[in-house]
Amino acid sequence: CGQPPLNxxxxxxxxxxxxSWPWQVSLHGSSGHFCGGSLINNLWVLTAxxxxxxxxxxxxxxxxxxxxxxxxxxPNQQSRTVAQIIVHPNYNSPVSNDNDIALIKLSSAVxxxxxxxxxCLATAGSTFxxxxxxxxxxxxxxxxxxxxxSPQNLMEVKIPVVGNRQCKCxxxxxxxxxxxxxxxxxxxxxxxxxxxxxxxxxxxxQNGRWIQSGIVSFGTGCAQPNYPGVYARVxxxxxxxxxxxxxxxxxxxxxxxTGTNSDLSVSCTGVPPITTPTPTIYCGQxxxxxxxxxxxxxxxxxEWPSMASLQKNGQHVCGGTLVSMDYxxxxxxxxxxxxxxxxxxxxxGRLKQNGSNPxxxxxxxxxxxxxxxxxxxxxxxxxxxRPTLSNYIQPICLGGGRTFPVGSSCWVAGWxxxxxxxxxxxxxxxxxxxxxxxxxxxxxxxxxxxxxxxxSGSLTSDLLCAVGGQCECLLTVMFVAGSEYGSDxxxxxxxxxxxxxxxxxxxxxxxxxxxxxxxxxxxxxxTRANTNVFVKLSNFNDFLTRILGNFLTPAPSTLPIAxxxxxxxxxxxxxxxxILLLCLQLF
Length: 587
Known about the structure:
Elements: E1 24-29, E2 32-39, E3 44-47, E4 62-65, E5 78-80, E6 82-87, E7 102-106, E8 120-122, E9 133-138, E10 155-162, H1 164-168, E11 181-184, E12 201-206, E13 209-218, E14 229-233, H2 238-244, E15 252-253, E16 282-283, E17 307-312, E18 315-322, E19 327-331, E20 344-348, E21 361-370, E22 378-383, E23 397-398, E24 409-414, E25 427-434, E26 444-448, E27 452-454, E28 464-466, E29 502-507, E30 510-516, E31 531-535, H3 541-548, E32 553-554, H4 566-586
Parallel strand pairs: 8-13, 8-15, 16-32, 23-30
Antiparallel strand pairs: 1-2, 1-4, 2-3, 3-7, 4-5, 6-7, 9-10, 9-12, 10-11, 11-14, 12-13, 13-14, 17-18, 17-20, 18-19, 19-22, 20-21, 21-22, 24-25, 24-29, 25-26, 26-31, 27-28, 29-30
């Protein structure tokens, strides 16, 4: 189907050359030609329902194939009468022009040749984007009320498809155009099908075959501005046609448009913009983080994909975390009372402060908003553009009202001043949640001390001990986060560059931020050695909700990574025993 040997069409024309459109059919009644059609196999013709609304074969006196002229000589012509007409059961004119399609069974099969052959039909999976070149053919009027002049040769014209949204936004309005229709023509007018062309084919060429996309159905006038022609969309009726023609079925070919369909961006009154479903963005994912027990003093790329480097005039000042697609969370103490946003940038996906970072992205800052509670406060830094999420850039979950039981294993990460070597690699360490003493466990979360330094001597590369105290056998393997501050009033557990970073705990397979590294309340009395006190992030829920709205959703629960891994538990026990032996050697 769809391969006319005599068709060499490249650009638009007027009179069709003989044999160019060998599937073109002329339906004749008592007054001569009244509608077109298309040959779809050797026995069936496709046309418009409004051409044969009664389904009465006697209304058609002759069906001509291979015809070129309505008044001149047609040496390649064959004619048949009609054995049967099948009108689509849902055609309901004049109430609607919908389902304007019918099938005509010829009295006998035709013989194919260069001048008579079937067209291919578009399958249900075909796509005809706005602008697809299409051809219409027929013997209809050449203008409103202007008949085709003698000798009334077959006419052809090339027109572009007009998307259904654009067609609904034209003079027809939304109600007149359905999904069972396809429009084509110039919005400025000038080229169109007209009276007498009804039932004829609209075709497009792909991969050497001509595929029928439409059946001439209706229009307002002929070639009027803002009124493209409307056609029955053939691809909508593949199953119906196959159900009627059970033997020697027509050839169905999929037409696939390329590029972008501009019609998707068209909107007007009654045709609202298309809302593309936004995929769910889950928080707390770290595909490259395999943390189970212990850790290392230096993170690798992608282990903490929510980490952000807040930079003022190009220099790292504080840490932070990506908590939504627009905001990074940090410590309000990182900023002045009236920060100048143009001085700040946020870097995501960064591992090293010095050196190559192939996975990082930098963002300008559009706004900085700080909470206003008594004592320590947090800040939300709004990014000028949304980041593209990857294995190296992911938002962390905000705990909300989530609790982290005593014994929970949590982590802190940051670019500690003076640590991480010359490249200033991202530092990480593990800690455990403790029972708070002499401070409110409602407002605070307490952990084992995690600001550590190496002990001098032969064990400096292996043994880690608490700052300001004797070397103790800690119940959690802990690693250096950085050096302590001096007398600037900040927590000795928050080294320069770590400020604003997160305390992160994992629950149900997702990472949650339990706290921001803030200053400690200087009046807090700590009776337990080696304890850190964090202000719970939940204290700032009202502020966070006001700025962020709903928090991101954690991924569906999965089994905790540590469960069911006996090798991990063995390693944990082995490390504890090793530290115990090292501690005993020191004393």
